[in-house]
Amino acid sequence: MTGVPDLLDFDELLTDDERAVRDRVRAFVDARVRPDIADWYDRAEFPVALIPELAELGVLGMHLTGYGCPARSAVEYGLAAMELEAGDSGLRTFVSVQGSLAMSAIHKHGSEEQKQHWLPRMARGEVIGCFGLTEPQSGSDPSSMTTFARREGDTWVINGAKRWIGLASIAHIAIVWAQTDDGVRGFIVPTETAGFVATPIAPKMSMRASIQCDITLTDVRVPADAQLPEARGLRGPFSCLNEARYGIGWGVIGAARDSYETALRYSLSRVQFNTPIAGFQLTQQKLVDMAIEIEKAQLVALRLGRLKDAGKLQPHQISVAKLSNTRAAIAIARESRTILGGNGVAAEYSPMRHAANLESVRTYEGTDEVHTLVLGAHITGIPAFRPSAEGAA
Fold first, then answer.
1. Strand, coil or helix: what is 216?
2. Which candidate, 94, 93, 86, places its Cα nearest to that of 333?
3. Pseudo-torsion of CA 131, 164, 355, 245, nearest 10°?
4. CB–CB of 57/28 below 8 Å?
5. CA of 42: how far to CAs of 128, 190, 201, 363, in Å?
6. In 3D, which of 375, 143, 19 has the Cα closest to residue 384?
7. Which of 123, 147, 176 is the last residue of a domain?
8. Directed axis angle between helix 74-87 and helix 281-309, to 10°?
9. What domain range includes position 292?
10. Are 149 and 115 within 8 A, CB to CB?
């Protein structure tokens, strides 16, 4: 027997359509990602050639409706994120940056003209977007951003810097968040605009099969209609971040499950002292503990998905999944590596790669500390940090 035992009959909680989406994305990952991911990771290469196939798979802007977007449910998107991250966190991150951040920003806050112009091409993978919020000195506290957009007649002039911006060096447009005289606003900035420079960050010890960049904006001039008209204050970017955090709550389960499955298969075939190591009590305890944590994480994610599809999901509930599921996934990846022994450091086995990736996932879209304090404030009614009134929403 291999794979995660469905200890709680989780599949029975899914509809036929949900299982079909999951199985289709899983088959794609098995065929197009697993054979090459170790090499991509080793060479620090993001598989750009897969972008049209991901579009054909229907996972770009998957949960968005209209404008050529797939209009799948939140649960279906979550299941797809889980299967993509079972391949590699970098793959799920690409889909998240494109759909949950860049496309969501336009879908939620853009004008009708902006939506019509950009979203169909982004859903087809013809236009790649990135999301410029984090700055070199502004991560957990985006209210302290220093990037500034100044209005000059019929144009905006943007100056500043962003850091750890996924996809920026291959993106066609950047959603750039900047201070203005009227507070934080968002702008659609074509990356070919003079003064926009994206530089991949290297070397990296994590997310190697992914792209993260530094961005500099030097007198970047865009027309007045580049502004996202419905995004005012930090509620604009935070609404997009919540979309991405939701997907992470599902995605990390895929990394955990793949680590577990790798360790289980190995333990059944690795013979020591004339018996498979899966027959030893300590190994079985590790496998049982990991399987239970995966089941629990799936139930948390599914609960959030059902709430989101019902229009009832609250930000603090997203923090539960981002914090708990990511923390569990890292522990599972690390424990899986111990079952592999010395072979666990070889690239042909996934747990150590997943563990390294998950250190980045643990940090982006809100650190453990930030999500802990979000939940602490919700439980006690007393904020232990001082975000802006807008950002706390």
1. strand
2. 86
3. -30
4. yes
5. 24, 31, 16, 22
6. 375
7. 123
8. 150
9. 235-380
10. no
At residue 390, does pLDDT exceed 50?
A: no
Domain endpoint, select from 226, 243, 277? 226
- Predicted confidence at residue 392, as pLDDT, reads 39
Mean pLDDT of 38-49: 97
How many C-alpha atoms does 201 have within 13 Å on its Cβ side? 20
Domain count within the chain: 3
CB 358 within 8 A of CB 203: no
- When pLDDT is cut at 50, 70 and 90, the band that residue 389 belongs to is very low
* Distance, CA of 366 to CA of 175 (rounded, Å): 19
Does 281 lie in the same domain as 181? no
Listed residue (64, 190, 211) closest to 123, CA to CA:
64
Q: Using an 8 Å Cβ cutoff, are 357 and 89 in contact?
A: yes
207 phi-psi bin (left φ>0, alpha ψ -120 to 50, beta other): left
* Residues present in the chain in total: 393
State the DSSP code for 236. H
Q: Identify whether residues 115 and 171 lie together within a single domain.
A: no
- Are 109 and 167 contained in the same domain? no
pLDDT band with cut points at 50, 70 and 90 for residue 140: confident
243 and 353 belong to one structural domain: yes
Which alpha helices (H) appear in the chain, and where do they start and end?
A: 16-32, 37-42, 51-57, 74-87, 89-95, 104-109, 112-123, 235-269, 281-309, 315-340, 351-363, 368-380
Q: What share of the chain is helix, strand, coil (3-state, %, to 5)?
A: 55, 15, 30
Establish how many alpha carbons lie within 13 A of residue 243's alpha carbon, considering only the half-sphere containing its beta carbon. 27
Active-site option among 18, 76, 83, 365: 365
CA distance 41 to 191: 26
Phi, psi of 331 (to 5 degrees): -60, -40
Q: 376: how many CB neighbours lie within 10 A of its CB?
A: 16
Scan for tokens 């860049």, then name that residue. Answer: 102
Q: Tell the residue number behind the tokens 């008209």, with chain if given.
A: 229
Averaged pLDDT for residues 116-129: 98
Catalytic (active site) residue 56: no
In 3D space, the residue among 92, 372, 15, 36 whose CA is nearest the CA of residue 253 turns out to be 92
